[in-house]
Task: structure prediction
Amino acid sequence: EVQLLESGGGLVQPGGSLRLSCAASGFTFSNYVMTWVRQAPGKGLEWVSGISGSGGRTYYADSVKGRLTISRENSKNTLYLQMNSLRAEDTAVYYCAKSSSSSPYDAFDIWGQGTMVTVSS
Amino acid sequence: QSVLTQPPSTSGTPGQRVTISCSGSSSNIGSNNVYWYQQLPGTAPKLLIYRNNQRPSGVPDRFSGSKSGTSASLAISGLRSEDEADYYCAAWDDSLSGWVFGGGTKLTVL
Result:
């Protein structure tokens, strides 16, 4: 069964850091673009970042550029999101999602259950 | 303010047909495929329509998508109570070099 399991969320102070992880199983991880999408409480979906199968190409929303870094470790079937200089507006559920192909322009066909990040003093 | 524009809410009675619109621009819907996601209350989003009008296996044919120019729409026929959810459209934006989502449409089945 194809599965994504996020972890690493929690409460952090403004200006702090956090690293999210997404453990993948049931598919050949390195063959697919992976993505982070977030959802602030009571709000809609916002794409955050994407990374190619090899990890050689990364994509970021303007709202997180320079503060959030996406990476992957294909030997461990794990996707990461390093979050630095966190702000209150980063408070959201963070979903990890698998692309349906090796293209960054294709659907997110599998989603994890999400991990909550709260930025507050 | 979302790059793609959807109505915040819509409603229908069981058995009815409803449509949800998604309006964009030449840099997103006008030049790329549109995707639709369904988010049931308290759950993660699920892919509903890909490449404008394709259904993943397991999605009932009551759900259909279409695209024309810089707009797209999702139609749900034979409305059922379990269709009550938030629906989001999405597309790659060439100008932003990233994905953009609509603000979401909350569907209520009366």
